[in-house]
Amino acid sequence: MTKLKKNTAAPDFTIKDVDGEEFKFSDFKGDKNLYIVLNRGFV
């Protein structure tokens, strides 16, 4: 895993939601905040 330096932009990534639909981090570019919960323990 690559470590990020403070005050740098996060890298783009793709992830699936609970319905299996993919979305990209870049889809939310320009939004002030993005909160992602990665919880696979209770599936």
Would you give an account of this structure?
The protein is mainly beta and 43 residues long. A two-stranded antiparallel ribbon has the order 1-2. A hairpin with a 5-residue loop joins strand 1 and strand 2.
Radius of gyration from the CA trace? 12 Å
Structural class label: mainly beta
Mean pLDDT value? 82
**What's the order of the H and E elements?**
EE
Count of helical stretches: 0
Residues in helices, as a percent range = under 10%
Largest sheet: 2 strands, antiparallel
Unreliable runs = none
**How far is it from the N-terminal to the C-terminal residue, by CA?**
25 Å
- Could you tell me the number of beta strands? 2
Which SSEs are present, and which pair or pack?
Layout: E1 14-16, E2 22-24
Antiparallel strand pairs: 1-2
What is this entry, summarized?
With 43 residues, the protein is an all-beta fold. It is 0% helix and 14% strand.
Key phrases:
globular, 43 residues, mainly beta
